Amino acid sequence: MNRNKSIRVAILCLSLAMAGSLPIDAQKVTFHEGSISLKQAFEKLESSSAYKIAYNDSQLDVSRKVSMDQKDMEVLQVLSQLLKNTGYTYKINGNYVIIVPEEVKTVKGKKQVSGVIVDTNGDPVIGANVVEKGTTNGTITDLDGKFTLEVNDNSVLQVSYIGYNTQEVSANGKTSFSIKLGENTQTLDEVVVVGYGTMKKSDLTGSVTNVKAEKLLSKPVVNVGQALAGKASGVEIFENGGTPDGKVRVRIRGNNSINSSNEPLYVVDGVIGVSNINLLNPSEIESLEVLKDASATAIYGARGANGVIMITTKRGIKNEKAQISYDGYVSIGKMAKKLDLMNASEWWQNYNTTMDNGQKYDPEGYAQGKYKKVTPADLPNLFDANGNPLYDTDWQDEAYQTAINHNHQVSIRGGADKTLYSVHLGYMHKDALMRNGFLDRYSGRINLDSQLRDWLKMGANMSFNYNKGNDNYKSYGVKRLVQEAIPLIPVKYPDGSWGSNRDFPGAVQDTPSRYLEEMVNETSNIQTIADLYLDFKITDDLNFKSTFAVDASNRKRNYYSGKDLIQFSKTQGGIATIATLKELYWQSENYFNYNKEFNKNNRMNVMLGASWQQRATESVEATSQNFSDDFYQWHNLGAGTVTIPSKSDDYAWSINSYFARINYTLKDRYLFTATGRYDGSSKFGKNNKYAFFPSFAFAWRASEESFLKSVHWLNNLKVRTSIGETGNQEIGNYAFFQNLGSENAIFGDNYYTALYRSTFGNPDLKWEKTLQWDAGVDVSVLNQRIDLSLDYYYKKTSDLLLNAPIPGTSGLNTIMRNIGSVQNQGFELTLNTHNIQTDNFNWMSTVLFSVNRNKILSLGENDEDIYPAPRHPQGDMLILRVGEPVGSLWGLRRLGTWGEDEAAEAAKYNRLPGDVKYEDLNGDGKINSEDNTIIGCTSPDWTMTISNTFLYKNFDFSFDLRFVFGNDVVNCATHNAEDRSGVANGFKSNLNAWTPQNQHTMVAQRRPMKSYYDSYPDSHWMQNGSFVRGQNFVLGYTFSKSLLQKIKLQDLRIYASAQNLFCITKYKGYDPEVTTYEDAAFGQGIDDFSEPKARTFTFGLNVKF
C-alpha cells in the first residue's frame, strides 16, 4: 500500500488503533444523552466503540435531532435506531461503517450506475464523494473505492475528495465507471512561494508568512500595503493620511538603516523590485508571502536586508471551462474626525483678549498704537449692526467632502490539460476627501502558462496599469489654511467675490476654498510589466528555468497655481510646471533546479543560478511664470512671459549576481537549508563592488519523531533556527564618485551656469550589511484547530552609510563613509484558532502580536549625535544617538506656564507670569538648545491585531481590531494653532490659555503675534500616539447553490463593510497613524498639518458565472 493510501486509511481508522480487545459484534453501549444531533450521535458511537463511521455530509442531514437514550444495546442496533426514517442505512466492512442511501427501485428515466475511484497509482480512494451534479443525490466510496448510485439518464457525476482535483464524468449512455483522481498537492500540503521557487510549508526552515487572496481582499483596498495591513506579525503597515492613492509605509522587523531605504523588496511574479508597487491592482493577487529572516531573504542578497514581499498573481485553472467572475463595490467615505477649532464667536473673543494683552507684553509698542483693535464698525461686511459676526464658516467642512468611490474587476480564468490562462480587467474611481481631488485607475493583466512539450513549459505575464488624479494634498499651504482660515470670513460674499483672510486687518493669504478651485496638481502614471519564462525539463530530477522581464513606467505631473493666489503664486503672476519621469528596468534570471529523492529517508533540492538587472531613469521639468490669464494653465507654457531654466536628470544602475540554495531533508524531520548570493553593484566604489551574502538554517519536525507519534492531539511541532547576512544597496547611484553640481547665476540680463564640487568621492564605500539570527517554533494541535507560531530575532546592521563631518576648509562639510551600526531585536506571535465548529456555526480567530526594540550601536569614530530630517523652522525634532532607538524625539520639556507667585524666578529668565515655563536641564539660568533632551519616540512598544470570523449558515461576519501602544506623535500644528492669535484661527485650547484666574495651564497667555511668544519643539507638541482602531468590519451573505443553479450562477455573495469605524486615542490631531514627510526615513509620527482619514462604508458583491 503506497503512502497516500496509508494516509487515507489512517484518516478513516485512527480510532481503531486505540480500540480494546473486545470483539466488535459483542460490544454493548449505554447512552443517556437525550436529544442531540445525528453528527454528535455518530461521534458518541465512535468514541464508545471500535467502529469508524464514514458519511457524506452534503447528502445526509447530520444536523437533525435524534434520541440518544439506550441501555446495554449493541452498537449496530443503536445505529439502526439513529438512521430510522432517514432514507439511509449502513454497510459493514471489518471495523468500518459506511452510511449509504437505502436502495430504491429504479423508476422511469433513472438508472443505476456503479464504478470504482482510484488514485494515480491505481489504489482505491476511500470515502470519495460521488454526487449527481446539480442535485443533492450522492454517495461515498467504500473501502475498495467502489460506489453504486441511482441517477437520471443524462446526468453528470461529480467526484471529489480532499487532496484531489474534482472530476466531472457524463453518465449519458454509461452505467459502469473507472475514474482516476489526480492529486491536488496544494491542498495535501500548502505550498508557499520563496525566492526562485516554491516549497511545502512543512519543509520551510525560515520565517515566512503566507497570506491568501481571500484574506488580502477582505476589505476594499487601493494598494498592496493596505491589503497586507494586519495580516502578518512583524510587519508594520502605516496607513498615513487619507490620500486617494492610499500610500503606506511598510517596515519588516524595524528600521535597519539611517541613510538608505528601509522599505522591503517587492517581487511580483518573479520581477524583482517593481518600480511602483502602489500601481498594482490588489484584486489580481492570488497569494502573498512575507520573507522575514535571513534564511528566506538572503537569496536576494544585496536587496533583501529589509525583508521581501513575494506577490503571485492569479493564474489559469487546469481542466476547467472558463470561469468568469465580477467583483465590485461602491463606498462612501466621511471624515472620521474633525479638529477642535474655534468658531467665529470664540475667535472674536480670543482676538479681543489677544490685543488687550499687548499692553503687558509690549508696553512700548502698545503705547505707540501698534496693537489697535479692529471694531465691528470697521468691518460692516463681516459684522452686523449689533457687532456680531455675520458668518461662521467651518473651513474643514468647506475643504473636505464626502468621498464616493467605486471599483469594478472582471476576471476570466480557465485552461485545458496543458494550457492555462487568466485575463483581468479593472477600473477604480476614488474621490479624495479634499475637494476636487480624485484618482482613476485602469488595470489589465494577462497570464499564460503552457506545456509545449513534455520537456518544455512556457509562460508569459503582462500587466498594464494607468492612473490619473488630482492631488492637492501635496500642498502644505492648503492643509495649513484649513486650520488657520478665520471663521469670520465667508467662502464667497453675496456679490460672488471670494472671501479672503486679508479682509481682516493683519491676516494674510486667501481661504482654502479658493486655492482648491484655482490650483491643479494633476499626476498620471503608466506602468507596463511583462515577463516571459521557459522551463526546460532536462531529466526527471533536473530543470533549467530562464526568465526575462521588463518594467517600464512613465510619470507626468501637470501643475498650475493661479495668478491671484496670495503667497502661492501672485508674485510670480501664476506658475505652471510640467515634469516627467521615465524609468526602464530589465532583468534576466537563469537557474538550474535539481530535485532528488534518494530513498524514503533522504531527499535534496539544489538551485544554482545567475542574474542580471539594470534600471535607467530620465527626468525633465519645465516651468513658466507670469500668465496674463488663468485660462492656459499648464497647457501652454509659452503663454507665460517668464521662463525658469529647465531641469533634467538621468541615471542608471546595474547589478550582476550569482546565487545558490541547497535544501536537504533527512527522514522527513531534519531539514537543512544553505543559501549564498554573490552580488556586484555599480553603486559602490571599485574597491568594494562585490559582496557575498550567506545564510544557514535548520528545522526539526519533532512531531514526526516516534516518541511523539502517539500524541494524537499534536498535529505538528517544528523548531527552527537560522542565521545569515543580507545587504542594502538603496543609496545614491553615484555616491562613490566626486560629483559636480550646477547653479544658474544672472549677470546683467543673461543667465550663466556655475559648476562646483558637490560631493567628495569615496571609492571605499561598501554595502550596508545586516546579520540576522532567528529562532522559531510552529505548533499545531487538536486537528489543527489551534496553530501557533513564535519567533525571536536579533538583527545587527553594520557599515551604515553616513555623512561624516570633515573640516569646512575642504570646501565641503561632510563625506559619505561606512561608520555606523544599529540593532533590532524582537518577538513575534501568530495564533490561529478554530474556537467553535458545528454544522451551522463556526468561529475562527487570529491574533498577531509583535514587539521590536531598536538601538543605535555606533555613529562613527566619536559617536556624535545626528539630527536628521524632518526639521521644523523652530528647531530639530529628531535625534540619532548611540544607545537610543531610531525615531527618538528631541526638544525641550514644557513644565507649564509661569504663575504670578513665580514672577521673581521667571524674571531670571527674562520672562513674565503667563509665559511658557521650560525645564532648565543644565541649570545655567538660560533656556536654549542646551536644555533639549529626548522627550519620546515614534516607534511603538508593541502592536497587535485581533481578527475574528463568524460563519452561520450562509452568513459571514468578521472584524479586525488593531492595537498600537507606546508610540509618540509630534503635532507640529500646535506651534501655529497656539501662537498666531489675532491673525489666524487655531485650536480651542486657546480658550484655556493663561489668565490670572487660570494659571495652571500649558498654553501661555494670549498676546499679539508681533510681541513675543516662546514656541519650540517640546513635550507639549509631543502627544501620546497609542490607539485602538476598529480596522475592518464585514457582514456578508452567500446565496445557496440550489438557488444559483436556477439563475445559472456558480457563486454569489453580497456584503457590507465599514473601515476605520472607530479610533480610540488621546492624540488630538486627525489621526495618530500619520506622517507628512513621506520621503523622510524617520518621518513617521511627525504631523505637520496632515489631512483627515476617512471612515468608509462599503457595499459590494462577488459573482462567478
Tell me briefly what this model is.
The protein has 1105 residues and is mostly beta strands. The chain is 10% helix and 47% strand.
Task: Provide a descriptive summary of the structure in words.
There is one protein chain. By secondary structure, this protein is mainly β. The protein contains 17 helices and 56 strands. The chain has a 22-stranded antiparallel barrel. Strands 15-20-21-18-19 form a 5-stranded mixed sheet.
- In total, the number of strands is 56
How helix-rich are the residues, as a percent range? 10-25%
How many helices? The count is 17
Instruction: Note the overall shape.
Output: globular
Defining key terms:
single chain; 1105 residues; mainly beta; 22-stranded antiparallel β-barrel; five-stranded mixed beta sheet; 56 strands; globular; disordered N terminus
Write the layout of secondary structure elements.
Layout: H1 3-13, E1 28-37, H2 38-48, E2 52-54, E3 65-74, H3 75-82, E4 88-93, E5 96-101, E6 110-118, E7 129-132, E8 138-140, E9 146-152, E10 156-160, E11 167-170, E12 176-180, H4 185-188, E13 191-194, E14 197-200, E15 208-212, H5 213-216, H6 224-228, E16 235-239, E17 248-252, E18 265-268, E19 271-272, E20 285-291, H7 294-297, E21 308-313, E22 320-335, H8 344-356, H9 358-361, H10 363-367, H11 395-399, E23 403-415, E24 419-431, E25 438-453, E26 456-470, H12 476-484, H13 512-518, E27 519-537, E28 542-561, E29 575-599, E30 602-625, E31 642-666, E32 670-681, E33 690-701, H14 706-709, E34 714-728, E35 739-747, E36 750-759, E37 768-781, E38 786-805, E39 814-837, E40 841-859, E41 871-872, E42 875-876, E43 878-879, E44 888-891, E45 894-897, H15 903-908, E46 916-918, E47 933-937, E48 942-952, E49 955-965, E50 968-971, H16 973-979, E51 1022-1024, E52 1027-1038, H17 1041-1046, E53 1051-1059, E54 1063-1065, E55 1086-1087, E56 1094-1104
Parallel strand pairs: 2-5, 6-12, 18-21, 50-55
Antiparallel strand pairs: 1-3, 4-5, 6-9, 7-8, 7-10, 10-11, 13-14, 15-20, 16-17, 18-19, 20-21, 22-23, 22-56, 23-24, 24-25, 25-26, 26-27, 27-28, 28-29, 29-30, 30-31, 31-32, 32-33, 33-34, 34-37, 35-36, 37-38, 38-39, 39-40, 40-48, 41-42, 43-44, 44-47, 45-46, 48-49, 49-52, 50-51, 52-53, 52-54, 53-56
